[in-house]
Amino acid sequence: MYCERIEQYFAANDIDVNKRVSVLLSAIGGKAYALLRSLTAPVKPAELSFDNIVKVMQEHLAPKPLLIAERFRFHKRNQNEGESIAAYVAELKKLSEHCQFGDGLNDALRDRLVCGIVNESTQKRLLTEADLTFKCAVEIAVAMETAARDAVELRSGARMYVNKVATVYKPKKTTQNTESCYRCGKGGHKANQCRFKTETCRKCNKVGHIQRACRSDVSFNERERQYKASRKTYKELHVVAHQSDDESDTGLANLEIYNLKNDLTKAIWLTPQVNGQTVRMELDTGSAVSVMSQGEFERYFKKAKLKPSPVKLKTYTGEPIVPLGVMPVTVKYNNQQAELDLYVVQTDGPALWGRDWLRKLKLDWESINSLQVSNPDSRCTQKQLEEVLDKAKAVFQPGIGTLKHIKGKITLEESAVPKFHKARPVPYAIRQKVETELDRLEAEGILSKVDWSPWATPVVPVAKKDGNVRLCGDFKVSINPVLQAEQYPLPRIEDIFATLSGGQFFSKIDLAEAYLQMEIEEDSKVYLTINTHKGLYRYNRLVFGIASAPALWQRAMEQVLQGCPGTQCYLDDIIYGLRARRDKCEFFKSTITYCGHEIDAKGLHKCHDKLKAVAEAPQPKDISQLRSFLGFVNYYNRFLPNLANVLHPLHALLRTGKKWMWTKQCERAFQEAKKLVMSDTVLTHFDPHKPVKLACDASPYGIGAVLSHVMSDGTERPIAFASRSLSAAESNYAQIDREALSLVWGVKRFNQYLYGKEFTLVTDHQPLLSIFSPQKGVPLTAAARMQRWALFLGGHRYQIEFKRTLRHANADGLSRLPLNGHGLETTMESTALDVFTLVQLENSPVTAEMIQRETRRDPTLSQVYTATQTGWSIEQKARFPQFYQRRDELSLDGGCIMWGLRVVVPPKLRTRVLEELHTGHLGVVKMKSLARSFVWWPGIDQQIEQLAMCCSGCQHVQKMPKTAPLHSWEWPASPWQRIHVDFAGPFKGHTFLVVVDACSKWPEVFNMTTTTASQTIAVLRDLFARTGVPEQLVSDNVPQFVAEEFQMFLRNNGVRHVTSAPYHPATNGLAERFVQSLKNALRAMTNERITLSQKLHNFLFAYRNAKHTPLRSRLDLVKPNLKRTVEDRQLRQSTGGEKTRELEIGVCVLARDYRGDHKWTPAKVKERTGPLSYTVEVATDTTWRRHIDQLKKSNVSQENVENVSLSPYVPVTNGNDTTTPQDVVKPISETPQTPAPFCVQGRYPTRLRKPPNLLDL
C-alpha cells in the first residue's frame, strides 16, 4: 500500500525517475531507513535503484504468503452477525488477494458467498438459481437485504414502534361480558345490575333468578360445564426435580414437576444465549431442571440432535410426561458461561429456566426487577411488553450498533503540537489478556492497526469483574489539554418536564457502550491513536475518556430524537433510541428521576433521596462523631443566624469533664439541626449554568459527598448530600484508597449532575491531587483500583483542589455519620480487584494465605500495614524510608500489602520467591522482568543480581564481558624503539615473518622456509644488524616467541619482550592488521604471472610509499609536533567510552577457558601485569595470564566448584595458523631482569637501559 501511495506522489509531483530514490529515502521514517540500510549492507541504499529498494523491503516486510493458508482463511470466512452483504463481499475480495484463483476467482467468490451467508431465506433463493454468477449473487443478496430493511422501516413508520410515541386511547366497554349472569344466564352485565334480580324462579320458587338460569336444572348445569371447559387454560410446565441434584427433592419419585400457573403478568422472563440463539425463558425456581417445548426446540435448534433422557417427568398432579430427549447446550448470560442440559418435552408453553441452571449461573435480581412492569394494574401487561420488545429485538441484539448519518469530529486548538507517548510496559501476568482484547477490538472494527502516527496516547489496562481486561486510553496526557471541547447545552429540568408532562408511564433505555456506536470522521481518527506493546492502533469510534465526548453524544442523540414527541435524551440514558442493553432498561415506570427531581403523572416533585444522607443520619455515638456533625452543620452557619441557640445542648456535651449522656434535649437539637440544613434557606436547586463543586471525604467506616453550587459571592450552597457505610472489604483499604473511593463514588452518585459539565473535586488528602490531576497521566506504579478510578475520572471535565480537614467539615461530617448499606457497584469493584489480585498471588510460589500470615507476623510489615491503613506519621519516615517514599502507591488487599500490581513479600517467604524466579536460569534481566509483574520488596533487584552471580551454572554459560574501552600503545619517541612481530601463514604454501615499526609503520616481511626459534633468531639478528636493536618487541604467544632460546636472545641484547594475553590478538593489533593487508594484497595478485618474491617486493614498495593516516608520509618524519599529532588522535579514539573495569588483587573471578567444554573457570586475581592484563591463579601453582575482556567478576569461589584437573600449561592457538598442535606455553611471567616499577598511566613502564651484549654474534 505504501508503494502505491508513493507512486501516486511521484505522479502528482512530476518526480523525475532519477530522483525517485532520493525522494523515497527522504520520505520514509528513521526506523524504516535504518532497517533498509541493514538489509542492503554493505551497499548503501542510495546506490540501489528504486525497484531494487522496493523489492528488498517487500521481501523483508511482506514475504510471499502461503497459498494453502490464504485459501484456508478464505474458505473459513462466514458472514458475521450484523454484517452487511456489501461488507461481507468486500472482505471476501480482500481475502482472495493472495489465493491465486486466477480465472476461477468469480466462481470461488460466488461459492463462498452462498455458503457463508447468514440469512437462510437469501441462501435458499441463491441456491434455486441455475446459472448463478458472482455478480448476480451479489445483486440478489443486496436486493433482498435492502427489501427486508425497507420493509421494517415502512412497518415501523406506519405503526411508530421505535422512534414515535403513540397516543393510547382507553378502549370502549364492550356490551357483552365474558362472564354470564347467574340470574338470567346471559352476559353483558353484572348480577347486581340484572333486571331479574327480584324475579321468582318457576322451577325452584326461589327469588333472585329465573327458570332459564336455575342451577337445579340439569340442562343448565351441562351448559355451564361445557362453557368452563372451553375456557380452560393450558397447564404450564413448571417444577422438575432430580434426586441426585438436590437433597431437598429426595422424597420425589424420578423427576417430579409442574405447578399450575395462569397469571403471566407476574412471570419473570430471561433472555440467555443458548448455543448462540437468544431464547426467551421463564424463570421458575420450583423447577429442578430446565425444559423447552418441542415447538420452540424446532424453532431454535431444528438441526440439533437429542440424546435419550435418563429420567421421566411428571406434574405435581401425578400426570407422567416422557421427555423427547436432552440436549447439552452452552449458555451465556450476563458475562457468564456454562455447559448445561436442556430437556425437550411435547407439551406447549414457554421454556423454563430451572434450578439446575440457577446453580451454575447467577442472576442480577436488581436488573430483573427493573424489567418488570411497575404497576401491576396497568393495562399494558408484561406479556404485551414482551410482544413489543420482540418486534424491536434488533435493538437488543448483542454487539455494537452504528449510528447512521452522524459522525463525531474531534477539533484541536490551532496551536496544538502533536504528542507521541511511548507504550507503557504491560505486566507479564496480563499481557496475554491485553493482546486478546486488542485482537477482539480489531476484529469488531473498533480499532485499526496503523504503522505511523504523529499522535499516540498510552494505554492503561484495567481488570474487569469477569477476569478480563478493559483497555483505556490515557487521553489526559495527549489530546484533552488541547481539545476544543464541545459546548453543547445539556437539557434543563424545565425542558424535560415540559416535554414529558402528561405522561402516565415512563421508560428509560440504556444504550450498550453508547459512545462506541458513533463513528469518527476520518480526519479525526489520527487524534485517537493509542500506543500498545503490539504497536499503534487507531480508534474508529468515539471512545470514553475524551473531554468532548458527552457533548458530541448529546448533540447526536437530540438529532436522532428530533420530532419524536414525548422523548428526551440525557447522555447515554435515552427514551427510545439505538441498540441498547435490555438488562439495564426500565419500562412503564410510574416515576422517573432527573437531577434531584421526580416526574410522574401528577407533575414535578423534589426528590428526597438527595437529602436522605442528612435526614436519616444516625445520632452520634461519641464525642468524635459529635464534633464531626457540628462541623458539618457549622459549615453552613452563615445561612442559619440562630444556629448557636439550636446547637447549645450539643455543644454542652463537648465541655471538659462532661459525662457523655444523650438526652431528649440533645436528640431534639440534633433533629432540629438536620431540618435547618435541609431547609430552603440552605439548599438550592441545581442550575447547569452555575459552577459546581463536589466535596468528598472518607472515615474508617464511611464515605460522604456534598454537591454544591458556588454562588456569585463565593459562598457554597448545597444541592444534595450522600453518604454510606464502607463494606468489610473497603474497611481494609488503605487510607488513600478510601479517600479515592469517596471521590469516585461521589462522582458516580451525582453522575446526572456532573457528566458532561466542568466541575471541581474537593479532597482533604493531598496525594490524590497528583494521582487524579487532569493534567497528569495515570501513574504506572499506582494500585490497580487506583488506575481504574483515575481512568474513570479522566472521562470527566474537572479540576481537583485540596482543602484542609478543618475547612472540609461538610463532607467529613457525612463520612463519620454514614447511612447503613453499600452500593452494588462497590461490591463489583471489590470483586474485580480480588479476582485480578488472586490470579497474581496464586501464580506465585507462595499463596495469598501465606503472605497474609507472614505479613501479620513480620514486625516491619505489620507496622507498614497499619500505617498504610490508618495513615503515615513523620516518625515512620526514618524507620521505613523505602516504604515511606512509596506510601502514596501502597494499597491493601486481602490482608496483603500491594505496591501497584505487585505483592510485597514478607522476608520469610522471599527465598522461595527468588528460587522460583531463578527456575530455568533465565538471567538477571528476565528475572527482574518477571518479578516486576508479581512481587516486590526493598532490595529485590540487588538480591536477584546476587543470586545470579552466586549460581555457578549461570556463570559458566555467561557471554564474554563487555569489551574494555580502547587503550592505545604509547607513541614511541623515535623510530625502531618498539616493533611488533607476527607470523603470517601458512599462506599459499608459504609462511612469512612480519615486523612493523610502531613509530614509522615501516614493515619488513621475510619468507621463512622453516619457523623454528633458531631460524627466527637468525632473521631478526640480520634485521637488527641493519636497523639497530629496538627497546621493546611485542608478539603473541606462539611457541617460537616464548621458547627459552628466543627469550635468551632478547635478554642478551637488552630487548624487553612483551606478549599479548592468550587468545587476545588485539593487543598485538599493529602486526595483526598488517598481516591482513599482506594476505589481501597477495590474493589480489594471484593472476599476475610473476614470482612470489616479485609480488612481495611490489607490495612492500607500494605500502612503504603510501600515505599513512597519523603520519601523512614516511618522509614527513622530519616535521615537528609529530608526537603530539598522534597522541591527540589516540586521545580522540579513546575518549567518550566507559570507564575501564579494574579488578582488585585476591578477588574471585571467572577466567575464560579455551581448552574444551568449560567456557569459564573460577580463579583469583594474583597480579596486575598491565593496564588491561592480569595474572590469575586457577589452581595451586598454576597461573594464567588474561586480558580484562577475558575476566568476569564472580561470587562463585573455587571451593564451590567441583575439582577439575588443570594442566599447568595453556594451549595457545595463533590466529595466523603457525602454531604446532603439540606446542604449549607456560603462562607468561617473563619480564626484563631489571624491570622498572609498574605505572598505570602508560601502557608499559620505562626501563633502565643497559649495554647490549654485542648481538650475541
Describe the structure.
The protein is an alpha+beta fold and 1257 residues long. It folds into 8 domains: 2-61, no CATH class; 67-149, Non-ribosomal Peptide Synthetase Peptidyl Carrier Protein, Chain A (Orthogonal Bundle); 191-230, no CATH class; 247-363, Acid Proteases (Cathepsin D, subunit A, domain 1, Beta Barrel), CATH 2.40.70.10; 407-493 and 507-578, HIV Type 1 Reverse Transcriptase, subunit A, domain 1 (HIV Type 1 Reverse Transcriptase, Chain A, domain 1), CATH 3.10.10; 609-822, Ribonuclease H-like superfamily/Ribonuclease H (Nucleotidyltransferase, domain 5, 2-Layer Sandwich); 844-949, Endonuclease III, domain 1 (Orthogonal Bundle), CATH 1.10.340; 978-1134, 2-Layer Sandwich (Nucleotidyltransferase, domain 5), CATH 3.30.420.10. Helices cover 34% and strands 16% of the residues. It is built from 43 helices and 43 strands. The strands form 11 sheets. It has a 5-stranded mixed sheet. A hairpin with a 7-residue loop joins strand 39 and strand 40 (1160-1168). The relative contact order is 0.04. The model is unreliable at 153-178, 227-265, 371-380, 572-577, 824-843 and 1201-1246 (pLDDT under 50).
Structural features:
single chain; 1257 residues; alpha+beta; Non-ribosomal Peptide Synthetase Peptidyl Carrier Protein, Chain A; 8 domains; 5-stranded mixed beta sheet; 43 helices; 34% helix; aspartic-type endopeptidase activity; EC 3.1.26.4; zinc
CATH topology of the largest domain: Nucleotidyltransferase, domain 5
Q: Classify the beta-strand content into a percent band.
A: 15-25%
Main sheet makeup: 5 strands, mixed
Which CATH first-tier class of the largest domain would you pick? Alpha Beta
What is the CATH H-level superfamily of the largest domain? Answer: Ribonuclease H-like superfamily/Ribonuclease H
Q: Can you tell me the CATH architecture of the largest domain?
A: 2-Layer Sandwich
Organism: Triplophysa rosa (Cave loach)
GO molecular function, one term: DNA binding
Protein name: Gypsy retrotransposon integrase-like protein 1
EC number: 2.7.7.49, 3.1.26.4
